[in-house]
Amino acid sequence: MLIDTHCHLDAAEFDADRNEVIQAALDAGVKAIVIPAVAPSNFDTVRELAHATPGGSYALGIHPMCVMQCADDALEQLREALLAWQHDSRLVAVGEIGLDRFEPALVEAEAWERQWRFYETQLRLAKEFDLPVLLHVRRAVDFILKGIRQIGVSSGIAHAFNGSRQQADELVKRQVALGVGGAMTFTRARQIRRIAHSTPLQHLVLETDAPDIPPAWLHGHKPRNQPAEVAGVASALAELRGVERSTVVAATGSAALAHLPRLKALPELAESIAGLPEMR
User: Fold this and answer.
1) Which of 79, 120, 136, 152 lies in disulfide reach of 98, CB 3.0 to 4.6 Å?
2) Cross-strand bridge partners of residue 98
3) Each residue of 16-56: pLDDT tens digit?
4) Cα–Cα distance, 150 to 261 (Å, whole number)
5) Terminal CA-to-CA distance of the chain, rounded, Å?
6) Distance (Å, rounded) from C-alpha 149 to C-alpha 6?
7) Residue 196 has what pLDDT?
């Protein structure tokens, strides 16, 4: 089953043709799209969009690159939203949360302390509401793992993973799948491709991060990524691993359902789930 486990479908880049983008994804065989929030300002938006999208689901969280702009009560707003919508079957995770050490301003003392506080608190909220996490891990995997060791998670996904083999193994050991997307389609992305090639398929999930991280075939032409491109990501991963595309689609679909178990309750997926291999 083709599942885009990370797509910012609410982004302004889709305002002019969002319905056409959704239809293109359906035509490409995409059965489910997970739409993560980035701040309290788009909590309502991602929820409404998930309910309006066939196979749509959503996550609620505060992105590490947004924490400096968020009000001091943002974490309380998140808890209130999780409490209000905890029984919504389309709420599948806490995310996008995590840490970012790429932007220099984000590693300055005040910003880093705030990032860490938001990350820890959101891990605790995920535990309180028994939800998986969608993790932003850019240049911060060891710190992400520190938080997971201290607080724990039921499961989750390391979005756009670009770390070492040792880090990948440690995440997998802690029930966190690795997100594979457009970056893997570039032959120069050697570390990402090595991980995507050698990690057992049951620990990999597909994603686009649309409208960002376009795959190689869009580079220099149409820079906006979109959820339909997850079909091409599946093909690229199959070619990299030397297996049938159907094997990748089935295994990564099962992995997505295993790591985001609330997806299994979506009525649009019932028929597709019946044909998948047994999930862990």
Assistant:
1) 136
2) 136
3) 999 999 999 999 999 999 999 999 999 999 999 999 999 99
4) 23
5) 16
6) 24
7) 98
Q: What does the domain layout of the chain look like in residue ranges? A: 2-217+230-271
Does 189 have pLDDT greater than 90?
yes
pLDDT of residue 280: 44
Q: Provide the strand spans (E) within the chain.
A: 2-4, 30-36, 56-60, 91-98, 133-136, 156-159, 176-180, 204-206
> Got the DSSP string for 3-61?
EES---TTSGGGTTTHHHHHHHHHHTTEEEEEEE--SGGGHHHHHHHHHHSTTEEEEE-
Does residue 115 register a pLDDT over 70? Answer: yes
Digit-coded pLDDT (tens) for 210-269: 999 999 999 877 679 999 999 999 999 999 999 999 999 999 999 999 999 999 999 999
The tokens describing 191, both together, are: 């570390």
pTM of the model: 0.97
* Level-2 CATH architecture, domain 2-217+230-271: Alpha-Beta Barrel (3.20)
Q: Mapping DSSP to helix (H, G, I), strand (E, B) and coil, where does residue 133 land?
A: strand
Alpha-carbon span 180 to 6, nearest angstrom: 10
Q: Which amino acid is at 179?
A: G
Q: Could you tell me which of 135, 131, 125 has the C-alpha nearest to residue 79? A: 125
- C-alpha distances (whole Å) from 116 to each of 39, 50, 63, 94, 119 are 16, 29, 12, 16, 5
As a whole number of angstroms, the distance between CA 215 and CA 199 comes to: 20
